[in-house]
């Protein structure tokens, strides 16, 4: 297969793909506007952060599949891909440990004000009395919005800290998942509003969809206790930015964010965002999955997905489950 890799991807797995007879074109610097031309003769497009528009999908006259080297697919026009018979595959769960580790780190940073304390030290200021008033995590209530692989990994790490775990009841959830969460001491409430009212820390672990965009809005933030922590290592679109700023200004809500709405496409860029400048926000640069362990695990699964594509099966297909890639329409219809 002809494979275009449009984002950073580990060399060992690139070599494996080449050794299996695939033609691998590695262009991690390919910009969104260059993708339609770059994908023209590719059968498989592998990407991570680069947006894959409907125009790019339609330009891929031989394209059989778009593989997202990660779990979220909000950067891919999956609807257009489905209409054109192109499978969109993702890699769920392989970055869960990395994202969960960052999530716990951000909670600790909020509680102990680690970034501010470090900044003072670098400015030559010793402020022990100022930073000695942390509330501590033990005994506080952590509300988890989403109990997929990441949400469960966060729960598993939070329980030993003595955090009380709270989730939302879902009738469609696998009973084994519910049992596993209850085994960690998790309690459940009927809906998000009840979760917000009872938690000291609200941690977000759901994908960005039409249903979840703006999920954390003014009405919900009115329900969280004063001084609550909001942690988002999922997608920036989940949070209504003006509403969060209002809650931070008037209720001393504090936030730790690895993701923002309207993030730069490039890995290095100027970034002016009202949340990034707010004194109640600690932030990182959408690096939740960016550990060597996670990237290796994701790359290995991408190789497995390509192996399946060769046989006509689209593993982890999210836009048209069960579609055989050999059923893609003729190039003239693209």
Q: Key features?
A:
single chain, 334 residues, Rossmann fold, 5-stranded parallel sheet, disordered C terminus
Descriptive report:
This protein is of the alpha/beta class and 334 residues long. The protein has two domains: 2-93 and 292-333, 3-Layer(aba) Sandwich (Rossmann fold); 96-283, NAD(P)-binding Rossmann-like Domain (Rossmann fold), CATH 3.40.50.720. It is built from 13 helices and twelve strands. The protein has helices at residues 11-19, 35-38, 54-59, 78-83, 96-112, 114-122, 149-158, 175-183, 192-198, 218-221, 241-251, 274-277, 292-310; strands at 2-5, 23-26, 44-47, 65-68, 87-89, 141-145, 164-168, 187-189, 201-204, 229-232, 254-257, 281-283. A seven-stranded parallel beta sheet has the order 8-7-6-9-10-11-12. Strands 2-1-3-4-5 form a five-stranded parallel beta sheet. Helix 1 (11-19) links the parallel strand 1 and strand 2. Helix 5 crosses helix 7. The two termini are 19 Å apart. Residues 321-334 have low confidence and may be disordered.
Mean pLDDT: 93
Helix-strand pattern, N to C? EHEHEHEHEHHEHEHEHEHEHEHEH
| Estimated helix fraction | 25-40%
Low-pLDDT segments: 321-334
Secondary-structure arrangement, i.e. CATH architecture of the largest domain: 3-Layer(aba) Sandwich
- Tally of contiguous helical segments: 13
Assigned CATH superfamily of the largest domain: NAD(P)-binding Rossmann-like Domain
Largest sheet: 7 strands, parallel
Report the C-alpha radius of gyration, rounded: 21 Å
The separation of the N and C termini measures 19 Å
As for the CATH topology of the largest domain, it is Rossmann fold
- Identify the CATH class of the largest domain: Alpha Beta
